[in-house]
Amino acid sequence: MFRAQLRRQAFGRLPNVYSPSRLSQYAGVTTSALIIRIKDATIYKDVLDQDKASPLFNNVNFTLSGKNEHWAIIARNSSLRTDFLQMLHGRYLCTPPDARTYPQFTARQIPLQQAIGYIGFDAERDGLGGTAVKGAYMSQRYEAHREVTDWSLLNYLEGNTDLNALEKPADSLDTQLLAKIVKSLDLEPLLQLPVSNLSNGQTRRARIAKALLAKPELLLLNAPFMGMDPVSQLKISSFLQEMANVSLPKIILAIRPEEDIPPWITHILHINPKTAEIIQGTTAHIYRSIPRLAYLSGPFVGVDLPTLMTMKCNLNSLLPRSLARRQHDTEVSRDYLPALHDPLPPGPPLVEMHGVKVSYNVTDNVDKKTVLGDWSESVEGTKREGLWWNVHRGERWGVFGPNGSGKTTLLSLITSDHPQTYGLPIKLFGRSRIPSPGELGISIFELQSRIGHSSPEVHTYFPKQLSIRRVLESAWADTPLSKPRLTHQNDVRIGAFLRWFAPELSPTKTSELQKIAETPLRGNWRRSGEMRRKLEHLNIVSNDIDWADSTTFRDLSFSSQRVLLFLRALVNSPDLVILDEAFSGMDKEVRDKCLLFLSQGEKMIFKPHGKTLNGNTRYSKSLQADNDMVNFGGLEDRQALLTISHDKEDIPGCIRQWICLPEPGEGKSARTGTLPGPLELHPESWRKIWKLPPRPEMPTIGRPGRGQYPRRKNYKQAGNE
Ligand SMILES: Nc1ncnc2c1ncn2[C@@H]1O[C@H](COP(=O)(O)OP(=O)(O)OP(=O)(O)O)[C@@H](O)[C@H]1O
């Protein structure tokens, strides 16, 4: 009776999904012991939205107690995850105002800004924020020369990033904590390095360290594992668990549904991407409510369906029928490639590296650091120093390796952003950078016209004031800001790209093409003369894509900016396409659309709600394909592709060759291999690339079903007690 009363007092109405375990969990917890208490709240982005009655979240109920509970916020859409964490952080308008309270912080009079820390890696920009200085131009990252404002990582962590830093007393720094964090996050060897030289993964670790050093009571981490190699992911996850276990600080993670949910997470809050409806409870409870989540990111992640089927587990109750059927029937990848798919025969070499070694501070024996090629390998039977690697036309490479192993450095040698490209034994498109007797060197302008490149670095330094159309046009220019050399064909190609991606790029999120596709015409309308005329008319008049002139790169969301840079890398059909973390930060559906476009161009469309009886019915020929008006048909055989990603979901299905760089300082050489088909349909290959141990036995979810435990007799026979 008393318990029921208390429950009513603390929560009012019950949360959207309520589990008995959750009920008992809060019985006995007084309101003042709660860290966050949100009850029947409606959240608006700003006051104006309130007038328009378009809330971000409706009827939010959420409680974070001081108990040993660890929450993960899961949503497919990056902006939903960010908005929810920001809402927990005290941002946005809450109605009624007292529906969102922070009882513990209020009782102890700790200001919210001090009590709650937030770091976002997802839709927010990389880099170390305003507290540190990133290079002013892309190649500055790879230079050995240091400016006075090139703060070291130690300066950054200690907060000494003012020019008169020495005049500031280093009072509040907890040196013990600093030492512990630096050790646990493997930052020790990087402490004296300028922050602008850190790799993406190293930068992320540095940001986590900085946030922990501020000693918040609660730390909100948005997509902390994005861009981290699988080994670092595990290390950081167990370090966060260690901190969270003692509530120093308490941690809430926001992750994507396809990411592994760390095993120490006890509670999940899932946000529906379409309706923003919230479902929450213990992990076991959520896996039972949303079996798809258990399959995608829970204990079954990475286990292919046939293996799952053979496991002693009541899968029927776990997997929704449609998913089971789809996984079973489909024999094509997301980008419409068959499960077994031979690589293309290699053409002439585009990139030749004959013993490449990248070192910094070579004149200083103490500070000398080799970041790539610090090994010897067997080349045609002879031991040779450095990296020996060729990329041929028709090849599709995945470039892998732990954070800091030199992947971006390797690609920067190819794009020539790295100053050492000139002195190293590298040939690009058959020529060296510097002229040799009887041979002209390849110019930077020729390189730029033959390489399409999208990466977090390109994103950071790209001029944001350009219109969407100008961004695509700049693929035919010497630099993003110089005048492009355009022909009528280029214009038609740009129009085709803009139309295909109008739902992602235009302010109205609609596409004229879609409207035409839905126009009812008589007879075999998709292939009628009338349809063709309509499509041709679009190309001539082009007023359906006027928005591309009036909308700038800056106006787009982070995910759409990434889409635009991906399209820029493809639009002029360069000989070599380099996609370095090009899909990170994109929403899942958008990323899959980009992958399909890379492989099939305008030929195929994906219908998320198509019939699932036969996997192929989800894909159908496009209007353009039906009317022989495909302008871009995906990556061509004469092109080569290089992709970098730590996320297996971001690897294009066409990748057949892979190279994995060793851990820096390991002395081992790079490993190479091939894939039998799309990585998505060969999940075991991912473990092979990363040399990961076999997956542990699948844990039991919820109450064990029949046959999940060995019979008592066999159990004893096996020598167990
Ligand atoms: N100017 C420099 N001086 C010394 N070391 C540098 C310099 N520039 C880069 N590095 C180091 O080179 C190494 C390789 O960096 P790179 O960005 O190529 O790694 P990566 O494999 O792409 O990592 P990530 O997966 O984290 O993006 C890193 O350890 C980085 O700190």
UniProtKB/TrEMBL annotation:
Q: Which Gene3D superfamilies match?
A: P-loop containing nucleotide triphosphate hydrolases
One GO CC annotation, please?
A: mitochondrion
- The annotated region (Disordered) lies at 690-721
UniProt xrefs under InterPro entries:
AAA+_ATPase (IPR003593), ABC_transporter-like_ATP-bd (IPR003439), Molybdenum_import_ModC (IPR050334), P-loop_NTPase (IPR027417)
A single MF term (Gene Ontology): ATP hydrolysis activity
Q: Which domain of life is it from?
A: Eukaryota
Pfam families, per this entry? ABC_tran (PF00005)
Q: State if ATP-binding is listed as a keyword.
A: yes
Looking at the record, the residues that make up the ABC transporter domain are 366-658
Please name the SUPFAM superfamilies in this protein's record.
Answer: P-loop containing nucleoside triphosphate hydrolases
Alphabetized UniProt keyword annotations:
ATP-binding, Nucleotide-binding
Q: What is this protein called?
A: ABC transporter domain-containing protein
Please give the organism: Aureobasidium subglaciale (strain EXF-2481) (Aureobasidium pullulans var. subglaciale)
